[in-house]
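Q: What does the assembly look like in three dimensions?
Context provided by user:
Components: two
Sequences:
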Amino acid sequence: MIDEFATVWEHRDLLLDGFGNTILISLLAGLLALILGALLSTALMARRKSVAGLATVLVDAMRCVPFLLFAYLIYYGLPSLGLRLSNWSAGLLALVIYHTAYMAELLRGAWLQLPSETIEAGRAYGFAGMGLFRRIILPPVLFAALPNLGNQLIQIIKDSAFLTIIAVTELTHAANAIQGTYFVPFAAFVGAVLLYWVLCLAVEAMVGFAGTRAEGWR
Amino acid sequence: MGLTAANWLALLQGATFTVALSLAAIAIGIPTGLVLALIRWQRVPVLAPIAAVLVSILRAAPAVTLALLIFFALPTIGVSLERVPAAILTLTLSTSAFNCEIWRAALLALPKDQIDAALSVGMPRLLRLRRIVLPQVARAALPALVSEITLLVKVSPAVAVLGVVDITRAAVRIGAQTYVPLPPFMGALLIYSLIVFVFVRLQRVVERRMALANEVLR
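A: Here is the predicted structure of the complete assembly.
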């Protein structure tokens, strides 16, 4: 057992490389999904019934889809649309599209809780359309949704492990490669699970810290 | 989509098998989660902190990584599992951790005077648990437990990495036979999302029933 961990330690750069890739793809996907989700949330909250209805159906449908099957669909579907992407970009694209729906729904939830006086005050000062959304609505909505956004980022990190099936070299893929080459499955996967744990704890801690800081700015 | 009737049948069989695996995991995972939550709630020495750390790690572990860990690593410590039991164990461990948090939240929300009242009539511990604590806690936890069932059903195609012939593997097989991988994945996604949708509806029904029941109680 100790030998196993020693072998993994010897090849830690492989595991850490995968860990770095997991962090990079998750953060990038989280950021892009948040931006697109914010745009999509305006469609969910649109006063035009047809727009809001269509967006709601799309978001609700996406939230019924299992990510693994969705990742396969994107991976095999892109070439038939004439798009040739690397596995890494295809994985990122799958994460972004999938989690945009969740982000939009989270932001909608926080938006519904926003007191209407805030928006009316913004209108009274001449804010309208995108300016109203960006300057008046979005800041308190992001603040209120912060803990849920953190949980969603953790979900993205966990979903990124699925990308091993389309050979994205993230943490689980690295652990699998190490166990396959050196036959140290126990140490390799325990190491990977512990790294995921550390990452999720770090996200929770950062969200907590950002929450108290944002409270201070108000 | 260019799928034959036999293909659809194979996908349906795969989907049924995946759902069956999740339901088995749920049947074991809900009581296991309760036991873990009671251990933490009663602050059982030694066991309580171990349960806390274990639950925290399991909640951060992606299903794919956990499945690989269980399937490849357990044999090195002398426990060798077939693919199907390994798949059920993976899903059970994951859902137990989330169920533990749900049960624990319900236990912590239980008013202390309920316990005091039971103590005042001299109820012994187990009777108190059975007659006073569990009925109220089960009510409070039900909506969250049903929501966790939906989440587990959605994540369970992950066990395909173990080579279980579930929905994902069925789609991979058809793709390998026909050399066009996209249609079977579209079919699989459609079938499986509809199943998840049924669980989401079920969740709404439970939530509405609970809300009504709470109105009556008040």
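Follow-up: The two ends of chain A are 52 Å apart (CA to CA).
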